[in-house]
Amino acid sequence: MATYSTNQFKNGLKIILDGDPCSITENNVVKPGKGQAFNKVKAKNLRTGRVLERTFKSTESVEAADVDEMNVEYLYSDGESWHFMEPTSFEQYAADEVAVGDAVKWIKGQEVCVMTLWDGAPLTITPPNFVELTVAQTDPGLKGDTAQGATKPATLETGTEVKVPLFVNEGDVLKIDTRNGEYVSRA
Amino acid sequence: MKAWQSKASKEILLERALMLKNVRAFFDARDVIEVETPLLSRYSTSDPHLDSLRTSFREQDCYLNTSPEYAMKRLLAQWRQPIYQVCKAFRDDELGTIHNPEFTMLEWYRPGFDMQQLMSEVAVLVKTLFDNSGIEPVFEYLSYQQAFENTAGFDPHRTTSDECLQFAVDNHVEIPQGLTAADDVSVWLDWLLTQLVLPAFKTGGFTFLYDYPAAQCALAKIAPSLEQAAVAKRFELFFGEIELANGFYELTDADEQLNRFQQDNQSRKHAAKEAARIDENFISALEHGLPDCSGVAVGLDRLLMVLTGATFIDQVLSFSWERA
């Protein structure tokens, strides 16, 4: 089992806390004068995204998390798993519902996503920041309605509902920001 | 700002220059002589909580000093005169909001001074540096025992690791990963100090914490007592929760010093750290005879943080470690 000592702590280091892989985002030495040092650490749980605060007696060892990141292409879903392929090795990975998470709202196939692997298994999938998706259903906008900022719901081909301007029609291809789920423009 | 540029403002760097000038004027006016001692030494520190940075000269291991203490005491044994030094000190694995691996230290020794007299002089120096700042520094003096009784409600000189652990559990004090009842009670006291005692120090005020537990004596004399627990004649100065200075009524007994070095090395071994080679020149100086004296080391970068209201040590260094 690989471990890191507190003197190896730095931002971005991947360690196991509470059984989950975490990435250190802040590491500060606390030292009451000449005495024993402690490391106060903030770390992001890579599974849940939650930020943890933890203190360690210095020189304490912590289990290292074997975490990798790679770009993968989304292939298809069989309903239970979502299948991705690493484009240079052609190696395929099956991510479960938990790992795919919200990414499922934005991917239909061929998008290049960032996959985080923990011990070789998919942990999280991050979709591209921007995706282009076709509107499957939306009510027709009223002709001549030019009110600024007015929106209506539209269902995309992935089944996800977004708010769009009134002029958007069924069959339009839209650019969506996956980080906040907002409409950007017509593609 | 570009990576080659200093993060410190011009005002802060001018303030640093003024502080150094004022420090030298302060000691000059008191006939304390400025000395320089080697930053590079054949010996590393034995302090179990410090680690020297190692380098080499002609393929022989040598170390950057963690403080100029041993060399200054050798001068003191030879000259028996008050001396001071402004120098760089280096410590491995110390990096954070108020830590930089290389920092500026002011250290001075006063033959004939006891701990109380030296604390007073430290306060006068700080007041002098605050002249014309519009701030009137306020100092509080608190014994280690009093500080614990005020906040934790128990006597730190008569407690055990088990009791500290129980106290932490009962009072919902966070317990760091790796800290257990098997740890030395000193480690527990260090932790509870950061969690309970220091937060109770007056924000924006200076506090002298003195009479440390005997086990935390470092290089201070221990004052034995029949009725009370023995205490180390050691003090630290804090601004709010930030440690600024550490001083001792100095241990002068060579045998006792050698004994402490050996104990330090035992502790280092226990913590899987390399043992320090014992500085024989320093021991020989003590055998020759160190005058009865007190000495103190002040972190000047942190003092400059206080003078300028900086929050991070990076703000007062021309180039902190990330740009060094």
Provide a brief overview of the structure.
The complex is a heterodimer of chains A (187) and B (324). Chain A is mostly beta strands and 187 residues long.
Polypeptide structure, described:
The complex is a heterodimer of chains A (187) and B (324). With 187 residues, chain A is mainly beta. Chain A has 3 domains: 3-63, Roll (SH3 type barrels), CATH 2.30.30; 67-126, Nucleic acid-binding proteins (OB fold (Dihydrolipoamide Acetyltransferase, E2P), Beta Barrel), CATH 2.40.50.140; 130-186, Beta Barrel (OB fold (Dihydrolipoamide Acetyltransferase, E2P)), CATH 2.40.50. Helix content of chain A is 2%, strand content 52%. Chain A has one helix at 97-100; strands at residues 3-5, 14-17, 20-30, 38-45, 51-57, 61-63, 67-77, 82-85, 92-95, 112-118, 121-126, 130-138, 151-156, 161-165, 173-177, 182-186. The longest helix of chain A is centred in the middle third of the chain and has 4 residues, at 97-100. Chain B is an alpha+beta fold and 324 residues long. Chain B has 2 domains: 10-138 and 205-323, Bira Bifunctional Protein, Domain 2 (BirA Bifunctional Protein, domain 2), CATH 3.30.930.10; 140-201, no CATH class. In chain B, 35% of the residues lie in helices and 22% in strands. Chain B has helices spanning 10-29, 69-79, 115-129, 144-151, 161-170, 185-197, 254-270, 280-288, 300-308, and strands at 33-34, 40-41, 53-57, 60-64, 83-90, 102-111, 139-143, 206-213, 222-223, 231-239, 242-249, 293-299. In chain B, a hairpin with a 7-residue loop joins strand 9 and strand 10. At the A-B interface, strand 3 and strand 5 of A face helix 6 of B.
